[in-house]
From TrEMBL:
GO biological process, one term: DNA recombination
Pfam families given in the database record: RusA
Name this protein carries in UniProt: Holliday junction resolvase RusA-like endonuclease
Gene3D superfamilies (UniProt xref): Holliday junction resolvase RusA (3.30.1330.70)
Length: 161
């Protein structure tokens, strides 16, 4: 495997995306809305910082960015197929006996993947449909070789050619 094009280190409690709950008004909301919003903001912020990038700023209906004149259809780092691997470190409960988070104390791997995939849309790639090869590993601090010492994630992206 060649070296990743982009390696992001994000700190903070990872949140999964996918568990919905009904509101009194009959709408569906993410069950962990506030935590999810915070986590996605951290992931996106880490990518913007690393790449020295900015959010697309619509210039009327011109379809180009008001800040850099790049068309919206090209306003991301990677424009082709992408491989994404995330190693998500979750807090280890005091009662955990296993070396791996295999209880309901953490979210499902695909929910972590969905949150990270969405958070990076429009920054590292245009659309998360570009991720043709995705992998999400959940681990406790210091267990996996890319685990952090505290909750967070190491996210690596490669261009697939
Ligand atoms: Zn721009």
């Amino acid at each position: 495997m060649t070296a990743p094009l982009i390696t992001l280190t994000v700190r903070g409690e990872p949140a999964g995306q996918g568990n919905l709950k009904g509101t009194a008004g009959g709408k569906l909301r993410h069950a962990n809305g506030r935590d999810l919003h915070d986590w996605r903001g951290r992931v996106r912020g880490a990518a913007l910082d690393l790449l020295g990038a900015h959010e697309y700023a619509a210039l009327g209906k011109s379809g180009v960015c008001a800040l850099c004149s790049v068309p919206k259809t090209q306003h991301a780092e990677l424009l082709g197929a992408v491989r994404l691997e995330a190693v998500v470190t979750v807090a280890r409960p005091k009662t955990a006996r296993s070396n791996w988070p295999i209880t309901r104390s953490s979210s499902d791997w695909d929910h972590y993947g969905r949150a990270i995939g969405d958070a990076l849309t429009g920054v590292t790639y245009l659309d998360d449909s570009q991720v043709v090869d995705g992998r999400c590993i959940t681990t406790y601090p210091y267990v996996h070789e890319l685990a952090l010492g505290e909750p967070g994630a190491v996210i690596r992206l490669w261009a697939v050619t």
